[in-house]
Amino acid sequence: MISANLLAIFYLISGVLFILALRGLSSPETSRQGNLFGIIGMAIAIGVTIISVGSFSTGFIYLLILLLVGGSIGAFIAFKIPMTAMPELVAGFHSLVGLAAVFVAISAFLNPEVFKLGSPGNIKIASLIEMSLGASIGAITFTGSVIAFLKLRGLMSGSPITFFGQHYLNLILGLIVVGLIFYLCKTQVNNWFWILIIISFLLGVLLIIPIGGADMPVVISMLNSYSGWAAAGIGFTLENTALIITGALVGSSGAILSYIMCKGMNRSFFNVILGGWGATDQTSSKKSGEQKPVKSGNADDAAFLMKNASSVIIVPGYGMAVAQAQHALREMVDALKKNGVKVTYAIHPVAGRMPGHMNVLLAEANVPYDEVFELEEINNDFANCDVAYVIGANDVTNPVAKTDPQSPIYGMPVLDVEKSKSVLFVKRSLSPGYAGIDNDLFYRDNTLMLFADAKKMTEDIIKSL
Amino acid sequence: MEIDPFIFRLSIFILSIFIGYYVVWSVTPSLHTPLMSVTNAISSVIIVGAIIAALAGESENIFDSANIFGFLAIILAAVNIFGGFLVTQRMLAMYKKKRKDKK
């Protein structure tokens, strides 16, 4: 056994280690050490909890077996998962945290004596509120993340699913959740707790289905945030400092990421959450139906242009991830560098399906991170660059966002690709991007369209270099 | 009058939100994906609740319904802890500076 005070101090230490783990991510050099701090913090938390329970009988053996089983599954996934599948992996992991929060809340509800919260049917009101909130947010996180996972994995259509009165239904369900928590506290009847969890599961599904594929960065960050708040709720119930600190950290982290992603699209958080881009504004996309002249080229043209350039900026987008073109891209850049061309990468905050998605893929392909720049850092360089190579990105390069107040993406920060001397745009067709609007860039005089699969085209260019 | 311990926990909670706010803003955007996976891993510290739920109060029958939920939560959290930290490690190992020696 271990004294309650000592236990609390150990939990505080793991809380501090978790803070250091996040702090380490301020630069790639310190990040690996940060991750180590996180692992140590987790080991301390688990270790002292086991000691505090102090029973080393059959239950303990089950515990070790389960840790080992869960751990091997987790390790297996971590080593096998391709980097392009990171968004769905993170969504999947969020769902597990959510479900774990629900389970812990349920067991605290069924067996409150263990956690010193009172007895069944007579649980402390504060604890009851905390555990209901934890369970409810956990349940929303679980089903919401499952839907996000299915959409990202392509097992479910990425297009928004909307129906009449959807938002009112969600609002009503949300109010029911609040009402149920209130009622539960008053009556302490078990059934209300189960109904609360079921309705929260339903709410999680309904909240995420109207959100489309390219809005996933916001959704994943939001669910990240939710999983933190759920953990914090449970932390209050269990009176556990490590959980409270962690929950607050994760909650605010997810919230900040959602904010950054929303800003990257110049949309309000509610606009994203209420789903369906352009559902209100279809007018500007309709009128551009007529055929406009487009210059298209082949790999040899592209190779010629880039070989004779002195600087090239690469603009990757989700299409690069889909085509798995990051390795080919790096080879192309190596070949260009041998010819004395200066090459950098420009990343839009919402490129890809999760925050930082493109950076991870480029890192995987051995692109040094000091050649990769964010929008604000590099946007002025387009004016002095000879060739911009746009691979798999679309809406984030559309100059319409700066010029046409009618456009649904007006005001969204975009990469000033059109300012470079020439633009190579790798794309399979002229179809519009996620926002459903035509990209003005396709028809500019200095744009050369390369109609092909991103990976195939990049490989062809390597050959002609 | 004595202060309710709840207030202390609430203070920790609120201050941690502020710490989280400043720490996360200092995270470089290129590491946002590892940030998500590591926050995911640390939020699995919820496993401490699961361990207590599963082990404590095991008087006669350890497969009491309350304990079962604890054990289930242990598995889920364990997948997350190992998966989350290891995949973060794997990602972070890929972030390299410009090589000076090669080519």
Give a description of the structure.
- The complex is a heterodimer of chains A (465) and B (103).
- By secondary structure, chain A is an alpha/beta fold.
- Chain A has helices at residues 4-24, 28-53, 58-80, 86-110, 125-153, 166-187, 190-208, 216-238, 241-265, 269-273, 283-286, 299-307, 318-323, 326-338, 357-364, 375-378, 400-403, 454-464; strands at 118-119, 122-123, 311-316, 342-347, 372-374, 387-391, 422-427, 447-451.
- Chain A has a 6-stranded parallel β-sheet. Chain A has a two-stranded antiparallel ribbon with strand order 1-2.
- In chain A, helix 1 (4-24) runs antiparallel to helix 2 (28-53), helix 1 packs parallel to helix 9 (241-265) and helix 6 packs antiparallel against helix 7.
- The longest helix of chain A has 29 residues, at 125-153.
- Chain B is built from 4 helices and no strands.
- Chain B starts with a helix and ends in a 9-residue tail after the last helix.
- The model of chain B has no long low-confidence stretch (mean pLDDT 86).
- Chain B is mostly helical and 103 residues long.
- Chains A and B meet through helix 1, helix 2, helix 3, helix 4 and helix 8 of A and helix 1, helix 2, helix 3 and helix 4 of B.
List the helices and strands and how they pair.
The complex is a heterodimer of chains A (465) and B (103).
Chain A: H1 4-24, H2 28-53, H3 58-80, H4 86-110, E1 118-119, E2 122-123, H5 125-153, H6 166-187, H7 190-208, H8 216-238, H9 241-265, H10 269-273, H11 283-286, H12 299-307, E3 311-316, H13 318-323, H14 326-338, E4 342-347, H15 357-364, E5 372-374, H16 375-378, E6 387-391, H17 400-403, E7 422-427, E8 447-451, H18 454-464
Parallel strand pairs in A: 3-4, 3-6, 4-5, 6-7, 7-8
Antiparallel strand pairs in A: 1-2
Helix pairs in contact in A: 1-2, 1-9, 4-5, 4-8, 5-6, 5-7, 5-8, 6-7, 8-9, 12-18, 14-18
Chain B: H1 5-25, H2 32-43, H3 47-55, H4 65-94
Helix pairs in contact in B: 2-4, 3-4
